[in-house]
Design a protein that fits this description.
By secondary structure, the protein is an alpha/beta fold. The strands form 4 sheets. It has an 8-stranded parallel beta sheet with strand order 7-14-15-16-17-18-19-20. It has a 6-stranded mixed beta sheet with strand order 8-9-10-11-13-12, with helices on both faces. The protein is built from 19 helices and 23 strands. β17, α11 and β18 form a beta-alpha-beta unit.
Length: 573
């Protein structure tokens, strides 16, 4: 391979004996196996071997000699790709960089194999903490434990050594607090459940420590110091680019946004960030935040409003039309009444915002679709018939009545609602890697009939619904290859279980959803998601060709290089 690279480099050099005929490239990446994109039908286009890059964009794509002859100038950097597979950078359509960073710097409970493991990690942190310091973190998942039992305040009391402590489950929809944290929050027998939330109680009415959905907000953990906030975000971003992610559609705390701005101003932001705002804030606050940073900044800008309709299947807080098959008295927790949701959605759509609703249960999905239908109608003038086009909340002007409402997760859907997605132009923003974690118990939660319409990627595509794929980091690792594997196999990582294989996608369809589909979901398909002239020079170099790899090989994929805006932001050592 090394000898072949030397020969090709000689050929490329010889080819430029003729005068340069096009604009000089900043860099030419050559001797690659380059997939410039995939079609909407998942078909693979013809491959090229070289890319010419200038000013952060693709100048041209073609064969080595032709690209070098036309675009190689005196100062052009020549980068030999060594025959490696290259594809557009992954656009993670749903992530939480702030949470990912904070978990890395706090008590990291990701992968805890048992309650005892969880307690040991908490105890180690408590021993190092100053007296009275809060302990926080997250990532625990009781469905991975042999007991399958939720932790309690008593369990945390035994490990936290008197420190006020609260730890969020991996999905973010329930948390467990110890006695000191509950006391600091003033949670007693008399405390009422907040709207959209629930305080679990024992037979005596005392809080068990489990706080569901909005009840988590009753406990106020002091914010991290500024230096810790930045360090955490840097770690999360490094995690992203090292796994080939060049764009993150992110939902972090608003206090994280100035840190992203600071990093950008210092030239130290190696990934594009499309930041979501909170649907539940007032419209005036949402407008103020949207106007805070230029919407035309392709590196960093705010986009849609993110709202929560329900919780998660793992926490049994996803709002279902019928009770859980393994918990007959429970149908989940809707965050809104339909009337309140409708009014808020209409107001914000008319204000020009793209809306994206977290909805996992079939009841929550139906509520979101009902609200979208009213919001869509309300953005058309009833007098003149003219269209009110959103102008706030996405990067570039969109022509026509193109709202691109989104449902994040879309995990369980009524059979008749696939058509409603299509009719309303709603995007299914999904995370196929969730199935790897959930398939061990999802069928028990949902029952045989309802599970047919769960994680139904192919059914969405067959109905003509746009798909956008992400990871939900740090709920799942940010590595997109787990999602790619799930998309084409619907098999667990051990290879021992398959969940409704009729919903498998082709490799082309999966890669489209992770690149061009994700770009479409943020109104950026005109400049991002494929490697064509005028498009952003965002791409990833991998150690294997995903389009030809055996399914089991996908999981072991390694990133050799990540390029964002034409510059290498990660290089494997």
């Amino acid at each position: 391979m090394k000898a072949l690279g030397v020969v090709l480099a000689f050929i490329v050099t010889a080819a430029v004996a003729c005068a340069q005929t096009g604009p000089a490239a900043d860099a030419i990446y050559f001797h690659g196996n380059i997939l410039t994109g995939v079609g909407l039908d998942g078909a693979h286009p013809e491959r090229v071997s070289a890319l010419a890059v200038a000013h952060g964009e693709i100048l041209a794509a073609g064969d080595d000699a032709a690209i070098a002859a036309k675009y190689k100038g005196a100062g052009t950097q020549m980068v030999d790709l060594g025959g490696a597979f290259v594809m557009p950078g992954f656009n993670d359509a749903h992530a939480h960089l702030g949470d990912g960073g904070r978990i890395r710097l706090s008590v990291n409970l990701l992968g805890a194999k048992s309650l005892a493991d969880m307690q040991e990690r908490i105890r180690a942190a408590a021993e190092k903490a100053a007296p009275g310091k809060w302990l926080s973190g997250g990532g625990w998942d009781h469905t991975l434990w042999a007991s399958g039992t939720l932790p309690s305040r008593a369990d945390i009391d035994a490990a936290a050594e008197g420190h006020p402590a609260i730890f969020v489950r991996v999905d973010g929809h329930i948390a467990v607090a110890d006695s000191a944290a509950l006391a600091a929050a003033g949670i007693t027998k008399a405390t009422k459940d907040p709207e959209g939330g629930k305080i679990d109680r024992d037979a005596n009415g005392e809080a068990t420590g489990i706080l569901r959905e909005t009840a988590q907000g009753l406990v106020h953990v002091p914010p991290p110091p500024a230096e810790d906030r930045r360090k955490g975000l840097e770690l999360a971003i490094e995690d992203a680019v090292s796994h080939g992610v060049t764009t993150v559609q992110d939902f972090s705390e608003w206090d994280d946004f100035p840190v992203f701005e600071q990093m950008e101003n210092e030239g130290k932001l190696p990934v594009r960030i499309s930041e979501w705002l909170r649907f539940g804030d007032s419209v005036s606050v949402e407008k103020e935040q949207a106007a805070h940073h230029p919407a035309t900044d392709r590196m960093l800008h705010t986009t849609m409003l993110k709202g929560f309709m329900d919780g998660s299947l793992g926490s049994r807080t996803a709002a279902m039309n019928a009770p859980y098959a393994d918990d007959p008295g429970n149908s989940g927790i809707p965050r809104y009444t339909q009337e309140k949701l409708n009014a808020m959605a209409v107001e914000r759509a008319k204000a020009g915002f793209q809306l994206g609703f977290h909805a996992i249960g079939d009841r929550a999905v139906g509520m979101a679709l009902d609200a979208f239908a009213l919001a869509e109608a309300a953005t058309k003038s009833p007098i003149s018939g003219q269209v009110v086009t959103p102008t706030v909340g996405h990067s570039f002007e969109v022509h026509g009545h193109d709202l691109r409402f989104r449902i994040e997760h879309s995990q369980v859907v009524n059979a008749g609602d696939f058509t409603r997605y299509k009719e309303l132009g709603v995007i299914a923003s999904m995370q196929p890697n969730h199935l790897l974690t959930d398939m061990a118990w999802a069928g028990k939660r949902l029952g045989a009939e309802r599970e047919k319409y769960a994680y139904a990627w192919k059914s969405f595509l067959d109905a003509g619904v746009p798909l956008a794929f992400g990871t939900d980091y740090p709920v799942e690792p940010i590595a997109p290859f787990r999602g790619v594997y799930a998309g084409v196999t619907r098999m667990n990582e051990a290879g021992t279980m398959t969940f409704h294989p009729e919903e498998k996608l082709t490799m082309g369809q999966t890669l489209y959803a992770y690149t061009q589909g994700s770009a479409y979901a943020e109104f950026a398909e005109g400049w991002k998601g494929k490697l064509a002239p005028g498009y952003a020079a965002d791409f990833v170099v991998l150690d294997r060709d995903l389009t030809g790899a055996a399914p089991r090989e996908i999981l072991g994929t390694q990133v050799l290089r990540t390029v964002m805006s034409g510059k290498t932001v990660y290089l494997q050592h």
